[in-house]
Structures are given as C-alpha cells and as structure tokens.
Amino acid sequence: MSTRQFARRAVGAALLATAALGATFAAHAAGPQAKSVPGYYRMMLGDFEVTAISDGTVALPVDKLLTNVKPGQVDRALAKQFLKAPVETSVNGYLVNTGAKLVLIDTGASGLFGPTLGKLAANLKAAGYAAEQVDEVYITHLHPDHVGGLMVDGKMAFPNAVIRADKHDADYWLSEENMKKAPKEAQGFFQGAQASLNPYVAAGKFKAFDGNTDLVPGIKAVATRGHTPGHAVYAIESKGEKLVLWGDLMHVAAVQFPNPAVTIAFDVDSKAAAAQRRKAYADAAKGGYIVGSAHLSFPGLGRLRAEGSGYVFVPVNYSQPAK
Asked: Which of 23, 24, 195, 263 pairs with 273 at a CA distance of 20 to 30 A?
C-alpha cells in the first residue's frame, strides 16, 4: 500500500469515527432532560452544623397577597429582580446539630399546601438524618406550611421529639372557639394546625414557652408577635457566630427588602408584623450576622446591608464541605 493510499484510508476512518461520535452525542442530547431540585445545604456556625432543608416551592400570587402597597409597586419591584407574579416561593426548614441536640426549626407543609410541597421528610433523609433522631422541633408559628410536616401519612413524623412553640400561637390556633369565629376562608389554617399539633399534645410531647426563652444551650426563642399572635424567631449562637431564623417575618424578598412596610394578607396584625420586620432588618444589618427565612429562595441564608430607606440581601457564599 502506498503512503498516499494509507493516508486516504486513515482520513476516511477518522471521518467515520467523527461521524459516529457525533451521532452518539446527538443521541445523548435527544434524551430526557433532568430536573434540578434543591434538597439540602449545609454550613457550619461555630461548632454547630446547620442544614437548610427544602420542603419544595409553591407559586404565590404575591401581587394579590401583599398589602400596604401602591398600584403597580409590586410588579415594578418584582421586575427589578427579573420576576413576575405568581412567584415560585421556597418553603424552608432548618436543622441544627449542636453536638448535644438535634433541633429542627419548622417542618414544611407535608400535604397541607398542595402537591409541590411536602419534600422535607425525604430531604432530611437525603441530608443523612432520620426523623427519629430529631430531639426537638421548634415552630416559628402554626401556619400549615410550618407545622404540616409534623404529621406524615397520619403518623407523628418525629416520634422521639419534643415540639415547642410560643403559647400565644398555640392558644390561638388550637382553639375550636377561635376557629368557629374566623372567616370561612381562614378556618383551614386552624384545621391544619390542630391536625398537625394535637397528636403531640395528646402524647404529652408539646411544651409551650412564653416569649423570649432559652431553649437549649446556644438556641433562644425571641418573641416577634404580629404575623401571628405568638410568632417567634430563633437566635442560634456558637463560638461568636450568630444566625437568626426568621420564619415568616418576611415573605417576598424582591418587595419587602427595599420596602419593609409592605405587609401580607396572612398577617393577623399587619402593623405589628411590619414593626417587627423593620426592627429585625435594622438589627441584622447592624450586627452583620446571618439570617435565614422560610420563604427566601433556598437555602434562604445570607446577610443584610442597609441601602437608602431599605435593605439588600446578600446570600451566603457557597462553600463545599471539607469532608
């Protein structure tokens, strides 16, 4: 075989191989697309391990839910963040491992808030923990997207845990009398709270607190009443580092960070809720500590910086665990 013939055959073989490789890539590209779903995010806070756990997302018509706003204000604020209503809104819980206690703060919705939520139990397991390991569950307030995960398939999801919440919230939402007096459209909130918490009450596993209360070393409840009668946030501190978990102190970042006065229809006392939000924002910006919130985009962890009459949220820098 001449050198020229060999070269021609080599080029021909290379072209056939390239065509076959291209066909392989094309076949792969034509395959089904995979969906990215956040499950958990872990960070260290001093000696404490904090794991943000996603319960999923839900589309909220925030343009209809937000109150104390001017015409067009919500749409303009959303557009600045490349968003529009309805906004796909995260529902987050947070697991704190102090080394001595495993504490879950808020439990997601389970089946109480539609089919796109209820993923917290599976994501807790994916994060390496079993529900039976949880020692204590702290609830910011008794709305269904925070307490629903206490029950899964009619059973207590955290059979070995003590459940804690402010007594003002428990007294309000667990009251049959209050439910009967509430507007019909609001009665589902009472029903969800009662179905989720009453089994723990009956089993002697619910322990209410009243206002600012030290719960376990390094974790303290702080009263922030307004969104609900007993809404509480949880301050977590270890080795000089601080995290405050806000629950529903705020809902829509694009709107309520630049304008903390904006409220939401879910507030029991909107004026008090707005006052608590302004106070929390100012303290977080001054203190420079990390905050977490149930409805900030997952994992919902970051810091605040004051800017003009409002604030800017700065998400935590992504960090990959050393191990």
From this structure: 195
